[in-house]
Amino acid sequence: MASTSDIRKGLCIRYNNDIYKIIEFLHVKPGKGPAFVRTKLRSVTSGKVLDNTFSAGHKIEDVRVETRSYQFLYAEGETYHFMNTDDYNQIALQEGALDTPDLLKEGEVVTILFNTEDAMPLSVDMPASVILEITYTEPGVKGNTATNATKPAKVETGAEINVPLFINEGDKIKVDTATSSYMERVKE
Question: What Gene3D superfamilies has UniProt attached to this entry (predicted)?
Fold first, then answer.
């Protein structure tokens, strides 16, 4: 058993007869009244997102998880195929287990969380950032902008990301997987 002080992003807990992964949390200590923790939980079975508030000191049942490195092989509809980098065993997961499937390119190494009780995969943790190539973007026009002007760009995985005007087709960019936002241009 854990308490609300143990809550952190990525923690898997058992709540309402289901297993949830904490995707956001905020400790709130109001001036008047007891402290509490506001959380955003995602069900690892259905993918539904739930907002919940736990009072300070509330006991939560955490799920023991084991992490393993897997390489993304290919997607087939809504099924994503991964290979264990240690023993080359393959598993297939549904799209709901991934946080940002549109940023996943073939060959990318991810961390998959497994429930230690029944060895079922719970969720896929992407690396903090990925490097993707721009496949299409409109040319940026200089002079008609204020500060921080952006334009939409399509990357090699099919995702659309807002990038600064100086980014062109063929450029490689670093993308933050948590927010699906542009971080920087990568020089080769």
Answer: 2.30.30.30, Nucleic acid-binding proteins
Output the CA angle 178-180-185, nearest 5 degrees. Answer: 110
**Does CATH place domain 65-125 in 2.40.50.140?**
yes
Class of domain 129-186: mainly beta
pTM of the model as a whole? 0.74
Alpha-helix residue ranges (DSSP H) falling in the chain? none
Judge residue 67's burial from the number of C-beta atoms within 10 Å of its C-beta, 0-12 exposed, 13-18 middle, 19 or more buried: exposed
Q: Is the model's pLDDT at 121 over the cut of 90?
A: no
Please report the pLDDT score of residue 73 as a whole number: 92
Q: Identify whether the C-beta of residue 70 lies closer than 8 Å to the C-beta of residue 112.
A: yes
Rounded Cα distance, 9 and 20, in Å: 11
Assigned token pair, 16: 């309402």
CA distances 42 to 23, 24, 114, Å, are 7, 10, 16
